[in-house]
Amino acid sequence: MKAFLRVGTVLLALSTVLMSQLWLRAAEEEAVPTDRLLPTDVSVYVSIPSVDDLKARFGKSSLGEMTEDSAFEPFKAELTKAFEHVSGEIEQNLGVTLKDLLQVPSGELAFAVITPPGKKISGIMFLDFGDSEKTIDALMEKGEKALAEQGASSEDEEIDGTKVTVWTIKKDDDEEEKPNQLVYFIKDTMLVVASDLDTAKGALTRWDGKHSDTFADNDNYNLILKKCQSEDDDGLLVWYVNPMGLVQAALTQVAAANPQAALFMGFTEPLGINGIKAVGGSVDMATENFDSTSKTFMLIEQPTKGLLNVFQFPAIEQKPPRWVTTNASAWFSLNWDIAGAFTAVETMVDMFRGPGSTAAAIDQIAQQEPKVHLKKDVIDVISGRIQFVMESAKKKDDKEGQDRVVVALGLKDSKKFKATMAKIAKAPGFPAKAREFQGSTIYEFEIPDFSGSGEPKSGGVAIGPDQLLFSNDVTAVEAMLRGDTDGDALVDSSAYKQIAEHLPAKTSIVSFSKQDSQIETLWEAARSGQLGAAFPDLDFSKLPDFDAVKKYLQPSGSYTVPEKKGVLFVSFSTKSKKK
User: Fold this and answer.
1) Is CB count within 10 Å lower at the N or C end of the chain?
2) Do residue 330 and residue 473 come from a single domain?
3) Which residues are CB-contacts of 126 (< 8 A; sequence separation ≥ 6)?
């Protein structure tokens, strides 16, 4: 028994060592993420961590499932014919089929722009081609032949056991200017193409993923990744931009030929735009709760100043008012600190024209007809709550109608703004005619007919109890003033509730939209042949009836919320509930 236990213990120890070795070997063979192959001074970065995963998840998305619906078969046959035609041309020019070309991206596909201080901007691309080495070889052979025909010359250099090919492209018009380079190498299953040799060497130096100086350690980049994590961690696509780093690098290069260009950088601080430190985000699809999501975080230095103070949107509780009905295809609302925006603009203007110059100019203009004071009669009266509602047009006698749009601007003092509006209406050339309607004044005006129905259109402006109303359909203004609607309230609908459960309690900007309502018009236009000129090889009449695909198009929403270090923007569409 003891001997048996002793043998068992030895076997367990050996298996543990063996498994640990296999795990370490697998970890070593796993491709290093491209953000660890880049230096810290990256100003643009876009990465699809796994193209294979992206393809698989697209198939599980509503759009992917919609294209697999049997109703799509006739149109898919059209796409197949077009695909074969394009594939033939590609094979003739590149020596590979379109199918082979689409199978090339396998693992990570990434691109970066590097802005090293005092040096030329450089670019680099990473393509994990997986099992498509033959296709890559054919493409590279074709590309090298084209470069040689254009007079470029090449030489090979071995760096850490990897062959690096450098193509030099001279400029005939300026022999003194440094020639451009195109550098590439293949290592493991990764094709790397760079705009210069130093950039390519930098990637090779970091190939083992153990370098201490990489973009992956950039604090701003990591904060954005954290803020924009999806249900599946980093998402199917991630991106990052350092706008000021990019602008500064570009101006440095331009300043060599035009020194005045460098003066622009002197304005970035007083204007406050240098406070935007980085912008980035992620995109995902077919997650547990969402069909698609997109998150963007803008990292802003606090406190903000200059132009950035114009765009201040405090978070408040926002939901569709009851006059927004289920007929609405889209609803959008924001809460803008208009008083703060005015102060920011006034401060910047006074900075260049002298203290008090803005107020003096406004006072002077207010002495002229219609004698409206921009600050006292407009800015101080507007609350900053702005809402936008759109109702998709319905066909009438086989003619498309015009989408109905309503804009509601919140007011702090409706009575005072009525007096201001009355002054404006008396000004010569005012395009609207005033008429009374249930104790309110409607200013009605003609608008161009963009729908092609040939019917006259009348828009209207009026002041309700706490908002200024505008619509390209005067009957919408009349309905809002009466307090009645021609449908149930959107806020009570299951479609809106489906989105609302994913919205924060307070938002700066929020929106709701019905994808089916917005896409139907374009869909029917395609089926009727209106896109034939743009795509002559496709018969769009083979598209299925819209009712067959409507079930795949679910409501979508978006929101914006301020945070301590910046602003978070989120948009999403819910998963379809097909029957």
Assistant:
1) C
2) yes
3) 34, 37, 108, 109, 110, 111, 190, 191, 192, 203
| Structural domains counted in the chain | 2
Owning domain of residue 437? 321-488
For residue 511, being part of any structural domain is answered with no
Question: Is the whole-model pTM more than 0.70?
Answer: yes
- Least Cα distance to 520 among 486, 490, 549 occurs for 549
Q: What is the DSSP string of 228-279?
A: T-BTTBT-SEEEEE-HHHHHHHHHHHHHTT-GGGGGGHHHHHHHTGGGEEEE
Same domain, 484 and 344: yes
For the segment 79-106, what is each residue's pLDDT rounded down to a tens digit? 888 888 788 888 777 878 888 888 889 8
Cβ-based neighbours of 388, under 8 Å, separated by 6 or more: 330, 331, 332, 333, 405, 406, 407
Q: Report whether 411 contacts 467 (CB < 8 A).
A: yes
Residue 174 lies in a domain: yes
Residue 451, Cα to own-chain centre: how many angstroms?
Answer: 29
Residue identified by tokens 């709701």 is 512
Nearest Cα to Cα of residue 114 among 46, 41, 180, 182: 41
Q: Is residue 1 part of a domain?
A: no
Amino acid residing at 27: A
∠35-40-41 over CA atoms, to 5°?
115
Q: What are the φ/ψ torsions at residue 402 (nearest 5 degrees)?
A: -100, 135
Confidence (pLDDT) at 243: 93
Looking at the domain assignment, is residue 349 inside a domain? yes
Domain edge (last residue) among 194, 215, 236: 215
* The last residue of a domain, from among 200, 215, 230: 215
Same domain, 329 and 477: yes
User: pLDDT digits over 507-550, tens only?
Assistant: 999 999 998 877 887 888 888 877 666 677 788 888 999 888 88
Task: Identify whether the C-beta of residue 244 lies closer than 8 Å to the C-beta of residue 276.
Answer: yes
